[in-house]
Design goal:
Length: about 300
Amino acid sequence: MIANCREPADASRVGAACGGVAPCAVSSRLVRPHSYSRDVLSAPRKKKIPEVPAEPGLVVEEPGTGFCGAVLRIEHGNVVLEDRHGKERVFPLTPAGFLLDGKPVTLTRPVAAAPSKPARSASGSVRVEGLKARTARDSRIWVEGKHDAELVERVWGHDLRVEGVVVEPLDGVDVLAERIEEFGTGPGRRLGVLVDHLIPGSKESRLVEQIRDEHVLVTGHPYVDIWQAVKPAVLGIEEWPSVPKHLPWKEGVCAALGWGEPYEGWQRVLAAVHSFHDVETPLLGAVERLIDFVVG
């Protein structure tokens, strides 16, 4: 039994400073063994100071001077702050050198955003955003039929609307000379004509050779039909089937591939085309030349 233990006059203050226990207070806690959950010899962990990009507009305080302002820019390893009165100050980007919402932070140089690549149209040209189609030119591009027109629209539609060029089906090249005469070409009123199966000795090549008009440009591709200008791989076939000459080509293709009627086959072909990558090079070159000609 411990007797005559006198408390100092300031025991309550000292006790409070020590967590509320008076120096001579008798308690079972004095003889109870302590257990420690961690190594008492381990060094205290340093609190990690967060890093914050010094984006323009970020409001921070420099604690040494008490200057509070918004980030204007980073220059020569320093940050320029502007307070609400328009006063500017320059401070070095030192570790834990600023306060953000009252807590120390390290300002870092913002990572420059990578320049965004311009969006591309299906033809590979730079897409014009917010496009409003311009008034149609007097010049035109003619193609042999409806399927040709739909494929040209699928790949070059954006470019044609930018340039104000209308594509019209011709319904065969047999009437080409007559249609040109009816159209009435001239400066600012040009015609570009896309022809299927334009190879030496073909019927189409003989008809085209008769055209003698400086305001008309005829280009073409070597394929029997515009369908063949679509790459077989995008349709999941190794190659276009060979069709006997006495059979209509589209009907022969659909029968060989099990595609049903020609209109069903064409839906399959057109749906497989998403960009210029899906069509053969001769068609690409032919159409690009026509567009340049009629807008030139």
